[in-house]
Design brief:
Number of domains: 2
Strand order of the largest sheet: 2-1-6-7
CATH architecture of the largest domain: 3-Layer(aba) Sandwich
Distance between the termini: 33 Å
CATH class of the largest domain: Alpha Beta
Mean pLDDT: 88
Length: 252
Amino acid sequence: MTVKVVTDSACDLPQELADELGITIVPLTVRFGEEEFLDRRDLTAAEFWARCDASPTLPETAAPSPGAFEAAFRSAADEGHDGVVAVLLSGGLSATLQAAQVAADAVSDVIRVRTVDSQQASAALGVIALNAARWAATGGKVDEIADGAQAFLGSMLSMKPVIELVDGVVEPESRQRTRGRSIQHLAAKVREAMPVEHLLLLHADAPDHEELLGMISELVPRDDIIVTKIGAVIGTHAGPRAMGVAFQVPPS
């Protein structure tokens, strides 16, 4: 019997990587005025940014319904999994965690579900979900995977340099006077934290992300860096050309 890992579309994981590890991604909703789209299903990251350029209204996001999570959890049971670990967008930023908890209660007679508040967003959430999925693939049990995912929280650093997530809430991290200095500052955060694991570079169609990639490739082999686009959920709040890094600091 195996454990299924579920996350939400704020994770900004490349779909091929999620598929490879068997991670189910439950979509949040993105709204442009009266139009609603399921993130990643109805609207790709590229389509989202194109729509942002053309739309007179700013986008908004909404958490998945409990029913969306319930469907994912029941599907895991139907596939023969004996438990689910749901690693989710910070409860301080969204009602996503609450919706998953309601769904977990609703399916308690069918399959055991542990929800984990990642206290993170975007690729930092993604890193925790990846770790959980890799553990599940080695035969990990529900409680040890969920407890292990929670233990990762203290070793995560997420989007830099203008903001960071502290205890699941967005806080200002620093102010840089130019974009070039911001990129250098971001690379410096990686350098200061070395050695790091599971390094991701995330960007919102930023044409200069290769500059940051070059800097951090001097610290971590290029083949070990995952480059991913910021999707509609985080992009709604971060804006175009945003960039960040996410990584885990190994236990000392």
